[in-house]
């Protein structure tokens, strides 16, 4: 047992999720050690689109998902890539993913996700205040951009549902959209303004500020490769790191470590790519999502980041930038200043769960382990809320979210 009144906790994984958990737990009086085999914030948390995506209320699998998937797979230049060997090994995940696409499951998932997203900012704000991170986050609003007014009209229903769940959004014609975001060209067809969205200007710096604050509060950040979790703590290549409790927050790499902890929900790596462009002559004011192209553009501190692609393959497989490149082609027609050669490229794995909701709470077969992984497309947005939830669960407080929606034992039925 540690000298801390509340006890010792090892957080396994120094992505934004693990660090937000470590920060919340350290502030709560626990004696926290974070371990990561790499540098702080260098997993998926490094290269994402960095949107505080409070409008992303829909699960990935909605009615029609099977047909949609087949159509996307037929496009050799499109954003969906499934490596056959990986799919064959993870058939239970894919079967459960498709099975989630019923109207009722999509409705339940949408409401559950919307309820969490509604708390994203109120969870981030005190964290940003405490770590001195307000300069890294902008509440700029964002635009969902469409190629035509017809496409915008066709999406109205989804925005009405968002409005009914508390996400403000306003349709804009081309001139209105360009007045709001002058970097857009007149080739766009229209846009939806989402004033409640925002973004992180530098995700790596945000992770480092969280880590620095954890250390300043008395916690430790240790570089070590975890090989397992047992009753005494975390097993690493250099021996056991003893702790009263463990938080598993290893992103897309969590599943192997979770095996044996009683979790029945499969997890896959859904890898995304980004290309960084120099800011150019007409930098964006706010994040933009090119809806039909499924590309997010974000005005990061270091230049414009274009992020997209869902590549289902091993989390650590070599990047295939040649295959990903066409996904980003031609965007200069819609946004000025994105026709430059990329200054850098990146790939990283989203930790994806069939129902697009994270796995949070006590591990069924190991009550001293708390699970905090599987954030899919929303780990940046939900990291601070996850930290708050994990600290609440650890300390026996009411987590103020419906924990059934994220429970490690929730059932993902095939029919
Ligand atoms: C292209 C792309 C765009 C995205 N856009 C957005 C967005 O706009 N908004 C949003 O909210 N989310 C977005 N996401 C999702 C978001 O990036 C992830 O959900 C989030 O980063 C997951 O954070 P994490 O801390 O769980 O995982 P990670 O950041 O991957 O951290 C896991 C950590 O665990 C460590 N680890 C793993 N195994 C071990 C081991 N055995 N021993 C020690 N350490 C280990 C890894 O080294 C890593 O540092 C996007 C993702 C991608 C790929």
From TrEMBL:
Sorted UniProt keywords: Oxidoreductase, Signal
Signal sequence segment: 1-22
One of the Pfam families matching this protein, by short name: DAO
InterPro entries recorded: FAD-dep_OxRdtase, FAD/NAD-bd_sf
This protein's record includes keyword Oxidoreductase: yes
The keyword Membrane is annotated on this UniProt entry: no
Domain FAD dependent oxidoreductase: 9-392
Name by which UniProt lists this protein: FAD-binding oxidoreductase
Organism name: Pigmentiphaga daeguensis
């Amino acid at each position: 047992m540690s000298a801390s009144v509340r006890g010792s906790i090892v957080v396994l994984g120094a992505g934004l999720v693990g660090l937000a958990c470590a920060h919340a737990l350290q502030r709560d009086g626990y004696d926290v050690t974070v371990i990561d085999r790499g540098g702080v914030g260098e997993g998926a948390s490094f290269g994402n689109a960095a949107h505080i995506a409070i409008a992303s209320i829909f699960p990935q699998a909605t009615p029609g998902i099977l047909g949609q998937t087949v159509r996307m797979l037929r496009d050799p230049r499109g954003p969906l890539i499934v490596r056959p060997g990986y799919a064959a090994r993870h058939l239970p995940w894919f079967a459960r993913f498709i099975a989630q696409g019923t109207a009722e499951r999509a409705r339940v998932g949408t409401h559950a996700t919307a309820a969490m997203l509604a708390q994203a900012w109120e969870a981030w704000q005190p964290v940003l205040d405490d770590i001195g991170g307000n300069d890294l986050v902008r509440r700029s609003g964002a635009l969902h951009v469409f190629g035509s007014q017809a496409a915008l009209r066709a999406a109205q229903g989804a925005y009405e549902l968002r409005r009914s769940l508390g996400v403000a959004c306003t349709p804009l014609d081309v001139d209105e959209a360009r007045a709001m975001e002058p970097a857009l060209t007149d080739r766009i067809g229209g846009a939806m303004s989402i004033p409640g969205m925002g973004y992180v200007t530098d995700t790596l710096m945000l992770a480092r500020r969280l880590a620095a604050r954890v250390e300043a509060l008395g916690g430790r950040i240790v570089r070590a490769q975890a090989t397992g979790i047992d009753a005494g703590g975390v097993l690493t290549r250099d021996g056991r790191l003893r702790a009263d409790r463990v938080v598993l927050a290893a992103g897309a790499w969590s599943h192997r470590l979770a095996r044996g902890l009683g979790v029945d929900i499969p997890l896959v790596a859904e890898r995304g790519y980004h290309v960084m462009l120099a800011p150019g002559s007409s930098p964006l004011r706010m994040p933009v999502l090119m809806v039909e192209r499924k590309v997010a553009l974000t005005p990061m501190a270091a230049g414009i980041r274009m992020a997209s692609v869902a590549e289902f393959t091993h989390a650590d497989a070599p990047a295939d930038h040649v295959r990903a490149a066409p996904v980003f082609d031609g965007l200069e027609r819609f946004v000025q200043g994105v026709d430059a050669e990329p200054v850098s490229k990146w790939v990283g794995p989203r930790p994806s769960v069939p129902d697009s909701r994270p796995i949070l709470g006590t591990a069924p077969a190991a009550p001293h382990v708390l699970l905090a992984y599987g954030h899919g497309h929303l780990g940046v947005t939900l990291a601070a809320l996850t930290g708050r939830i994990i600290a609440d669960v650890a300390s026996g407080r009411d987590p103020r979210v419906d924990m059934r929606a994220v429970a490690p034992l929730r059932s993902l039925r095939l029919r």
